[in-house]
Structures are given as structure tokens and as C-alpha cells.
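stage 2 :: seqdesign
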């Protein structure tokens, strides 16, 4: 199965009003994801830094880039691409949209939602 064959579904993860500019909101899916509002855009990425097991939602956000507070790796929220070491691998990026005050993310069906635990 290729990445384009992965089955996904749109799910509501939070309210738009819960998102602060340039701050991450960790969502307890499995695996966890984080949601951001930066530069008037919404982003959703897998929440774990690709360098070491640490939440990216705790990081600093500026100009659509999140900086992991553990070892200062920087990841582009648009593409997931690593911008500097120690992270060298990209983080997964998920399609996201707002409908009214609802933030919806297109997640793989393999991701468990908090209420499904």
C-alpha cells in the first residue's frame, strides 16, 4: 500500500477559538497530533519530533515554523520538512480546514481518536 492508498477521514479535533496564534495545541490521538494557527493559516502535524520523542506542541512557533524546545530542531508546518539538525526526517502533515468554529483534520483511519480509547 502506498501513501496515496492510505484511507483517511475528516474528524473534528478542536474549536477554532481554542487556538492561540503561534502556539501549538496537542491532541491526544494515537499517535498524537498538534494543531497550530500561524500567519493566518491552520496546520496539523504529527506531534512527536522526528529527532527524539518529544511534543512539538510545546515548541516555539514563528513564520509557520515550529522549534522543538528539547534540542532546537526546526520543522516547517507547511511541508513537515526538517529545516535544521538535529532532526533530519520530516514530520507528517495532515490536511486541515475550518468550518465555522470547528477545526477539521483529515487523519488516517489508523489514528485513534481520544473518545475511541
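stage 2 :: out
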Amino acid at each position: 500500500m502506498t501513501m496515496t492508498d492510505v484511507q483517511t477521514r475528516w474528524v473534528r479535533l478542536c474549536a477554532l477559538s481554542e487556538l492561540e496564534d503561534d502556539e501549538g495545541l496537542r491532541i491526544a490521538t494515537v499517535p498524537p497530533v498538534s494543531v497550530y494557527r500561524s500567519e493566518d493559516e491552520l496546520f496539523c502535524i504529527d506531534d512527536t519530533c522526528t529527532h527524539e520523542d518529544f511534543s512539538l506542541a510545546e515548541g516555539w512557533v514563528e513564520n509557520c515554523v515550529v522549534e522543538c524546545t528539547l534540542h532546537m530542531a526546526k520543522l516547517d508546518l507547511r511541508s513537515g520538512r526538517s529545516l535544521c539538525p538535529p532532526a533530519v526526517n520530516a514530520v507528517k502533515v495532515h490536511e486541515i480546514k475550518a468550518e465555522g468554529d470547528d477545526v477539521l483534520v483529515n487523519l488516517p483511519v489508523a489514528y485513534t481518536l481520544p473518545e475511541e480509547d
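stage 3 :: structure notes
- The mean pLDDT is 94.
- DSSP finds no helices and ten strands in the chain.
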